[in-house]
Amino acid sequence: xxxxxxxxxxxxxxxxxxxxxxxxxxxxxxxxxxxxxxxxxxxxxxxxxxxxxxxxxxxxxxxxxxxxxxxxxxxxxxxxxxxxxxxxxxxxxxxxxxxxxxxxxxxxxxxxxxxxxxxxxxxxxxxxxxxxxxxxxxxxxxxxxxxxxxxxxxxxxxxxxxxxxxxxxxxxxxxxxxxxxxxxxxxxxxxxxxxxxxxxxxxxxxxxxxxxxxxxxxxxxxxxxxxxxxxxxxxxxxxxxxxxxxxxxxxxxxxxxxxxxxxxxxxxxxxxxxxxxxxxxxxxxxxxxxxxxxxxxxxxxxxxxxxxxxxxxxxxxxxxxxx
Length: 323
Description:
Elements: E1 8-14, E2 18-24, E3 30-37, H1 44-59, E4 67-74, E5 78-79, E6 84-85, H2 98-105, E7 111-115, H3 116-127, E8 136-141, E9 145-151, E10 154-155, H4 186-190, H5 192-201, H6 214-222, H7 226-250, E11 254-258, H8 266-279, E12 289-292, H9 299-312
Parallel strand pairs: 1-4, 4-7, 8-11, 11-12
Antiparallel strand pairs: 1-2, 2-3, 5-6, 8-9, 9-10
Helix pairs in contact: 1-2, 3-9, 5-6, 5-7, 6-7, 7-8
Pfam family, one: ROK
InterPro entries: ATPase_NBD, ROK, ROK_cs
Protein name: ROK family protein
């Protein structure tokens, strides 16, 4: 019989804008929260100070005594095998020993690190649009493009916690240089800033409010602006090519898409599904379903907890990440 004293996981969701934390139970409920802005332009110790402040606030919650582990979903690259992070948008952290620093502050509790795309995948598989699916790709399409995989009914983070990072599959072999060092990456074409950049370069004009974001481009596309629509069509093509490549490689059955760009709705999803038919042509890849994510801004926290619970075997009988 369930009691109100089940084990909890302390979850951290670390990005370039904010550091969020929560205590998560075996139903995916967030029982306590804390948050600080990320001092992304400061040195590594200052950034860690913000993380420590979140941990300290969570540690003051009445439920902290029930915490059995810490799960971290971080902007990447991450290296779970070494416990280090090197977020592109946090230059003060390069090969930063985040797992060791967090463990030192939580009394030696086990700490599990994954990339933020993998955390979102864990959340959507446990509580969201990929629930019950044995093989799935889940993606975050926002300022960047990240992702994660569920294979054989279980989260598959890979040795370093980065498996499924679809944003850096090259889909245009002679395309623009990507900050990662490759060319023509999905992220270079389909991320929000690149959708806006391409529309502006092609002659799209922002409205009177001067909003130059991908959301403004989406609004223009919905209103019939051909240039804005073409930029989203190009993003959809890149995403479709990446999803088809993934489906061909590991036979996924569903691709779940979240993040700010997914908020464009059918401006993105309609051409994506259409172009996916052009790329996923083999019989075992042709049936991939494309769905919007369901969990929103809490996905990183829920997923960080789920990833830790799966790896450590917590929450017996309700283990997240299994189908």
